[in-house]
Amino acid sequence: MRIVQRLTRPIDIYGNYLKIMGLFVLSLSILKGLRAPNLWAANHYVLNYSEGLIRRGLFGTIGLMLFGDVFYKYRTLFVIAFGIMALWLIYLLLQSYKVSAKNSPFQMCILVFFASPAMVFFVHEVGFFDQFGFLVTIGFIFHCRTLKHNLLAVIIGLSGSLLAFVHEGLVFIYLPVMLLALVCQGYSDETAAPPSRRYKILLLISCLPAIISLILLAGKGPISSSQLERLVAQIGPHIDFGIRLDIFHILQRSGGNDLLLMLHSWTRASSWVELLVDLLILSPSLTFLIYYGIIFVNSIKKKINKPAIKIAFIISSLSPLSLNLLGWDTHRWDALVVVTTYSSLLVLLTYFEAQLTPEQTTRIVFLAIPVIFLGLSSEYFLCDDDHFKLYPFLDHLYYLSDVLGGRIKFPTFPTQ
Predict the structure, then answer these.
(1) Is the residue at 398 inside a domain?
(2) Does residue 392 lie within any of the structural domains?
(3) Of 28, 121, 126, 308, which cross-links 335 as Cys (Cβ 3.0–4.6 Å)?
(4) Is the pTM of this model over 0.90?
(5) Which of 222-226, 229-233, 257-261 has the lowest mean pLDDT?
(6) Which range of residues forms the domain containing residue 120?
(7) Number of domains in the chain
(8) Contact status, residue 59 vs residue 77, Cβ threshold 8 Å
(9) Left, alpha or beta for 385 (phi > 0: left; psi -120 to 50: alpha)?
(10) How confident is the model at residue 145 (pLDDT cuts 50, 70, 90)?
(11) Which of 118, 103, 100 is nearest to 26 (CA)?
(12) Residue pair 321/158 in contact by the 8 Å Cβ criterion
């Protein structure tokens, strides 16, 4: 028992040091993946409803209403993109360390997530709507515990609809995480006998706005060639960065066409190899986080339907994998699985209290250490054939030197 106590002491006694270590590891991951928003992100920002309701046009429409033509400028999009990233980073840190205060072994999960190649990839996605969706989700998780069940269902419904109009894929990525919060509230509510019929109805109602929004967008169908030409003609003269026509051509494909294309792609061995390589890189951190979630649920003191909670947790964690049937970005969807798994863990720890045994805590520590080292030493696929920046981060130092020396302008406009 003394050996066990000594092994678990760092979790409780050195909590502040672990927080500092977490911030250090997160800083490394940010520096490894940091870059300016690329043309893919910038072009998505300026899509709008000038030619009628189209997919992914809400963000640009609201941006134009708020900022006018200045919204078309890359500097504006640059500030918005990094503003979104700064906000979700703040929420992430606040919520992570808030729940770890009552469950100290969770600090190992924080380190595992921050060290994961998925975190580097997610930072690299600055400007992508994935980060906007995560901001909505992590903000929801931060505030959801204070909401009554009816208001919680309303906010989930509105958030699901918002995500659908910003980017249809965000519904599949983040809505299951928010629905997990409603499930957990149903089981943690002391005034009801969960799972009550009321919560089942609320769960269904919460899904409806997102479903209706997706049906509405699908019902509008792909935009015509003439609409596409007018949209490009409307946006082109205003932007001060390059236009990527492949983004606009995506709007001419229906969801059914995308599904058929992806089903055909999965008949090729190369697609499965790509998926397996992704999972091989991400599996240490992903497996650890899911393992911790299962142990946590098993340790919940309240008498609840633990198998149902575990199933809901796993579904919300793995939900981005479903997009491998609808979109080409396999590396992107696979990396986001780690993000949604960690988000789902935050939901569990927000709603439930559980005390891990000393033996379980020791096991968590011993498992986390090699996973953290693997995460820090692993590399993953990045957008635009980019690569991980490694210590001493010479790319960033050279760029900073060029900016300060006046050799290049800040921010530097992307070329791809």
Answers:
(1) no
(2) no
(3) 121
(4) yes
(5) 257-261
(6) 2-37+77-219+255-381
(7) 1
(8) no
(9) left
(10) confident
(11) 118
(12) no
